[in-house]
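Translate structure to sequence.
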């Protein structure tokens, strides 16, 4: 399923001309405060009834919404959802203009709001404020993304018919897109800023105060025709830290907003196991809905989601350890499995799966994931092989809370079989963060998003490496604070830590705050393969003020996420806690909504929000030499010497055979050494994608090449004119 139409739409779902978007962004360490204002004008000759749709990251805390219509500012209040809906209906029946902002009933990361009648020539400025954690990338960058689906999609010249939305979007050149974007960002960090990068043209970046703060703005005239992505690199991104934020002076004492809040960031130095586990049942659940024919990004229409997904499956198949079990499911409106039951990973089963992957298409209709999940979980567990589920999807589903609940129930039901984890991947723009993050969090897995020019393979292989590592156990958090002060944890107790991953927890500091020079300490403890580890961090207890109360609101959001499982599913006691924190902190939940009434305008606001989608068929992308080489590797890690290998290496088979240094040597040994050397020489920058399959290849060389190994390696380096260090073949 493609992403829903977003931006300000008429009841007939025609786009209202968007004149400009203005974003103010404040990034402090690892969190961001965002204020986005969208300016629209009705240039039609008739009044329009319009509504506003705004998607965002599931971890974002929405705390303010207001509309400026014909010069009148209307600020919404946060109320219990049923009460807000009643007030809204009453206002409409009395002829008042009303505004209702709430989470979508079916997904937790899309918000909808009626904004009333827009008269001919009238203008509407809609401002929404939120705070969010910034995800940490593998290279240490903090990433902020302003999605293109913030507004109606205008189809550019040269794009195919369709485009994913049931809205009239006339094909126009990019230079004529009738709206612009301005973005001004301020970045500050005690760690020091190494650099700030943007995928769009920007003005000169100003670094201030010994590079502990920076200012960056988009260049004038930017057309909002792509995602805007900021990457922030700090000097010491992997340093544990604690930020203490002052409470709101006007708030009630001993309340979450009145007390100081703290955000603790850990980067556990978990050692990577030298001998990863070879056991596990690896099930890959791949989205094959029609929208997987869409491109990964609009700048490169030839790079399709389904093509990238197929390449990724090949990488994963080649990287699995011998002795494990696996299966592949495709889903859309229906689902199908490669094998009736998960099969043992052998050369034969891998080859059969590979043939089916290559013929796989995005031809299964919509995005209905619950049925295949139930089918997967209904299978009897394989003793000694814990289930590791990998889910790839580009869309969202109509029953996100049910899907997350299914994953959570099965994770809890099979604790005896240890770690039925789910690793989830959102593909392209518009993937549901509520779905992707929700199922990963519910199962103790990890979530990844692949957008723009990012390679799906690298993120999928990183997840596979995590799934093969020993499990971190006995995780606990302890506080050492001055007498009279205590920490109340607002985040769930950490249960999963992966190597190279950041862990953030929030706490409320209750009691008497000590003098300014006082310090506290918090310690993360865990056990790995029988050995105990501790990560202590000391911090100042002098709180800092923040007008946006960013940490307080993110702490509230973290607390809400632990108890809020949807408007209809949350237990009564948890709902009471969610309502209290949501209303106290002004952070929206599935049980609250923003309501505003304009009694000066006697025109009713009408109509429910509707959704629609259209798949966009396109041709498949071609495989590159790296994909060809990887697809030829055998399950045991070796390569055969044949025309396929020669083509991938860009050489003739005759030349390769003639260069074999020891004519009596096994040709597969020669082929495997060449393949490994070529990987290191040509694609060292993608090592994270082929590291696991290369590990299998080197192990195979050691067990099969014997005394001929050193000669084969030297000959391969000479033959390929490579600078690769022969030490890469060391045991």
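Result:
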């Amino acid at each position: 399923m493609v992403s829903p139409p977003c931006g300000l739409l008429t009841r007939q779902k025609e786009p209202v001309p968007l004149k400009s978007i203005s974003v103010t962004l404040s990034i402090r360490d690892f969190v961001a405060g965002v204020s986005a204002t969208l300016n629209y004008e009705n240039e039609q000759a008739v009044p329009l009834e319009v509504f506003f749709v705004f998607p965002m990251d599931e971890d974002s805390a929405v705390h303010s919404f207001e509309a400026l219509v014909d010069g009148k500012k209307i600020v919404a209040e946060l109320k219990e959802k049923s009460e807000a809906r009643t007030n809204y209906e009453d206002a409409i029946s009395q002829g008042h203009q009303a505004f209702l902002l709430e989470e979508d009933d079916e997904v937790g990361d899309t918000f909808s709001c009626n904004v009333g009648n827009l008269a001919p020539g009238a203008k509407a400025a809609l401002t929404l404020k939120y705070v969010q954690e910034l995800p940490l990338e593998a290279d240490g960058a903090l990433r902020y993304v302003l999605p293109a689906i913030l507004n109606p999609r205008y189809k550019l010249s040269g794009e195919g018919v369709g485009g994913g939305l049931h809205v009239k979007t006339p094909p126009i050149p990019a230079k004529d897109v009738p709206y612009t974007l301005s973005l001004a960002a301020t970045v500050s960090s005690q760690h020091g800023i190494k650099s700030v990068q943007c995928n769009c043209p920007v003005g000169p970046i100003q670094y201030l105060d010994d590079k502990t703060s920076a200012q960056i703005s988009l260049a004038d005239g930017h057309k909002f025709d792509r995602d805007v992505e900021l990457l922030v690199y700090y000097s010491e991104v992997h340093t544990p830290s604690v930020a203490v934020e002052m409470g709101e002076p006007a708030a009630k004492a001993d309340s979450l907003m009145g007390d100081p809040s703290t955000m603790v960031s850990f980067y556990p130095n978990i050692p990577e196991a030298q001998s990863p586990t070879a056991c596990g049942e690896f099930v890959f659940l791949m989205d094959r809905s029609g929208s997987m024919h869409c491109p990964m990004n609009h700048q490169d229409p030839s790079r399709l989601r389904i093509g990238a997904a197929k390449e990724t499956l090949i990488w994963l198949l080649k990287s699995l350890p011998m002795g494990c079990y696996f299966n592949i499911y495709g889903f859309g409106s229906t689902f199908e499995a490669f094998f009736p039951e998960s099969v043992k990973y052998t050369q034969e089963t891998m080859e059969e799966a590979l043939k089916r992957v290559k013929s796989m298409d995005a031809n299964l209709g919509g995005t209905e994931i619950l049925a295949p999940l139930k089918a997967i979980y209904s299978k009897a567990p394989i003793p000694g092989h814990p289930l590791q589920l990998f889910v790839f999807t580009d869309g969202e589903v109509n029953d996100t809370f049910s899907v997350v609940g299914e994953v959570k129930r099965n994770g809890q039901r099979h604790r005896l079989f240890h770690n039925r984890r789910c690793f989830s991947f959102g593909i392209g723009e518009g993937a549901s963060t509520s779905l992707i993050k929700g199922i990963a969090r519910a199962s103790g897995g990890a979530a990844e998003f692949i957008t723009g020019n990012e390679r799906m393979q690298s993120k999928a292989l990183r997840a596979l490496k995590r799934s093969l590592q020993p499990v971190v156990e006995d995780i606990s958090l302890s506080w050492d604070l001055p007498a009279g002060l205590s920490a109340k944890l607002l985040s769930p107790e950490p249960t999963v830590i992966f190597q190279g991953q950041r862990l953030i927890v929030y706490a409320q500091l209750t009691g008497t705050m000590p003098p300014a020079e006082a310090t506290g300490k918090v310690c993360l403890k865990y056990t790995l393969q029988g050995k105990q580890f501790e990560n202590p961090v000391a911090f100042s207890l002098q709180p800092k003020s923040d007008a946006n109360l960013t940490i307080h609101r993110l702490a509230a959001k973290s607390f809400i996420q632990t108890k809020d499982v949807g408007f209809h599913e949350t237990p009564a006691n948890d709902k009471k806690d969610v309502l209290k924190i949501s209303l106290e902190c002004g952070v929206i939940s599935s049980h609250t909504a923003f309501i505003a009434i304009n009694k000066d305008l006697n025109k009713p606001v009408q109509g429910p929000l509707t959704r629609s989608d259209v798949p966009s068929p396109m041709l498949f992308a071609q495989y590159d030499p790296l994909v060809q080489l990887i697809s030829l590797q055998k399950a045991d890690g070796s390569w055969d010497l044949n025309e396929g290998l020669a083509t991938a290496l860009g050489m003739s088979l005759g030349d390769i055979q003639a260069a074999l240094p020891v004519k009596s040597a096994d040709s597969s040994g020669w082929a495997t050494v060449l393949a490994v050397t070529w990987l290191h020489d040509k694609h060292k920058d993608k090592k994270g994608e082929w590291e696991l399959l290369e590990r299998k290849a080197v192990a195979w060389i050691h067990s099969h090449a014997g005394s001929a190994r050193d000669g084969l390696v030297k000959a391969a380096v000479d033959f390929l004119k490579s600078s690769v260090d022969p030490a890469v073949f060391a045991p």
